[in-house]
Specification:
This protein is of the alpha/beta class. It is built from 15 helices and 12 strands. It folds into 2 domains: 241 residues, Alpha-Beta Complex (Spore Coat Polysaccharide Biosynthesis Protein SpsA, Chain A); 79 residues, no CATH class. The protein has a 9-stranded mixed sheet with strand order 3-4-5-2-1-6-10-8-11, with helices on both faces.
């Protein structure tokens, strides 16, 4: 079968070697799978396990925790990771190896633990991306068990609160035309710090305005790129060669690739609650954004303000691509929409169009190829440049 070949090729050529440990537990049967990277998240991890144990499960859940540190980690981070690992190993151990263990957490939940710390840590430049990739590669191996019922690889973070219907929001009927689902979300502030509350309201509103704007423009990339909200098709995951090994934006780049394989759908069920907190563990994202808002970085705050006109201009480009091929596209846009034309020039749009036209025999495929080029990254680049 084609599906088996795609996944087989990925596992043979691109999966992380450590994920092969899955072959030791292929005799176990699971219905749901959830991957969680854990970096200095002792208390949050314990809270999430309690949260998961309270959900109603139709079948058995395999949670994969990738506990990790790096060469820059503090002694405190290492100690917290070790405390979590020791706590988990106090449970009923099914398998125990030097860097991998499987425990029975409850009747319906097993926890697979990769302990990539101290002398076997992850490099800081690969960070959370590699942690997610190891966990997802491991689950992909599990999916190859002929008795496995796992249809989606879920990904989240340790500092979330998952809703009661988390594993029920995705339709039971397998949608082969969907590469990934993205859950809805809202942020919460544990200690009710007013400064953080005000900052997260600004930031979350910006995220929603941006994604809603993309949707109004007809973009195929109108979804939230947050790693704690994902459920990915095993086949699509293999086709795009998994999570990129980056210490930030690994979720953005994975989804950007997935959207080119098959559509990404946003779920409308109960929201995942994301913890809003100050953090410098990643160069960008929610934690650094909150710090910059609280510090009144006016340039940054201004960049979060997306006007509707930006998405009206984006819609013009998307409609233009939809109607390719068009005679003299550069002349047409330069005369009709000079500001859009100038911005497209700066991001290499026309150069890419000419190359794609040369290499595309079936001209009916031009819109698809150009939409793949004018992807989520190029869209963001366009919005930022035309907004200056």
């Amino acid at each position: 079968m084609a599906i088996e070949k795609s996944i087989y090729k990925y596992l043979q050529l691109y999966a992380e070697p450590i994920s092969n440990i899955a072959k030791e537990i292929n005799h176990l049967d699971y219905t749901h799978a959830l991957v969680i990277p854990v970096y200095d998240e002792y208390q949050n991890s314990l809270n999430l396990l309690i949260n998961l144990n309270s959900l109603k499960l139709n079948g058995k859940l395999l949670i994969t925790l990738v506990i990790n540190d790096n060469e820059l980690s503090s002694d405190g981070t290492k100690q917290h990771n070790r405390c979590l690992y020791d706590f988990l190993l106090s449970k009923n151990i099914i398998i125990q190896n030097p860097n991998f263990s499987l425990i029975s957490y409850s009747d319906n939940i097993d926890v697979a633990i990769f302990y990539l710390c101290e002398n076997n840590h992850i490099q800081s430049k690969q960070g959370v991306g590699l942690a997610r990739k190891i966990g997802c590669d491991f689950i992909l191996q599990i999916c190859q068990n002929k008795d496995s019922n796992i249809k989606w690889i879920h990904s989240t973070d340790a500092d979330v609160i998952l809703p009661d219907d988390y594993f029920k929001q995705i339709p039971e009927k397998l949608e082969t035309t969907i590469s990934a689902y993205v859950y809805d979300f809202e942020h919460y502030v544990p200690n009710n710090d007013n400064k953080i509350i005000d900052a997260i309201n600004i930031y979350e509103n910006s995220l929603r305005v941006y994604v809603n704007g993309l949707a109004s423009a007809g973009s195929s990339y109108s979804y939230h790129t947050i790693g704690s909200l994902l459920a990915v098709s095993p086949l699509s995951y293999a086709q795009v060669r998994g999570f990129p090994k980056l210490n930030a934006a690994e979720d953005f780049y994975l989804l950007n690739k997935l959207a080119k394989v098959a559509p990404i759908k946003t779920l409308q069920g109960e929201k995942i609650k994301l913890q809003a907190r100050l953090s410098k563990r990643a160069p960008f994202g929610t934690g650094p954004a909150l710090s910059r808002i609280i510090e009144r970085d006016e340039n940054f705050i201004s960049s979060l303000n997306y006007q509707i006109e930006l998405f009206e201009k984006l819609k013009i480009i998307i409609n233009f691509i939809n109607h390719l091929p068009i005679a003299n596209p550069e002349i047409f846009l330069s005369k009709t929409y000079p500001d859009i034309h100038h911005t497209l020039e700066t991001i290499g749009f026309y150069q890419a169009l000419r190359k794609i036209e040369r290499n595309t025999k079936n001209k009916l495929q031009l819109p698809k190829h150009m939409h793949d080029w004018f992807d989520g990254f190029k869209t963001l680049k366009f919005i930022r440049k035309i907004n200056t």
